[in-house]
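Each letter names a residue; structure tokens follow underneath. Both lines appear below:
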Amino acid sequence: MANDTITVERVDHIGVRVRDTDRALAFYAVLGFEVIQKVEFDAVVIIRNSQDVELNLVVNANDDHPDSNILMDVETKHTGLTHMALRISSIPETMEILKAHDIAITQGPVMFRRDGHVSLFVRDPDCNTIELRARTENLDAIEGLQMYDPKG
């Protein structure tokens, strides 16, 4: 027996369920993603950014809860992936770009622990939660930074 565990090399891509292709593509374009392929045999649009981060937009969401995310916005908590975290280069620059595109920050900027990372949270048009996370820059330059200290 060579090995008892599977070697996972990296995350290959993330699938994101959406309702409307054009609306989703407009949002993810602000994050630097471009269409690589529209799959002909399935409701999937493959998008990628210049750093080779790949998302698969799965265009088959129903309209039961168009203004909420069943994993994040309801009292009863369901199992499932709650968000994706994307590494960014600058919190202040990202905040400016989000503001210029009228994309609301739903939480943050926040530093959850003193590990050198600051996060912003946004929602795509289908209420999927995205964490935009950067290594610490000049903390004084980050307007509204909250420090979460679990010890008090």
In short: The longest helix spans residues 21-30. The CA atoms of residues 113 and 149 lie 6 Å apart. The first strand starts at residue 14 and ends at 18.
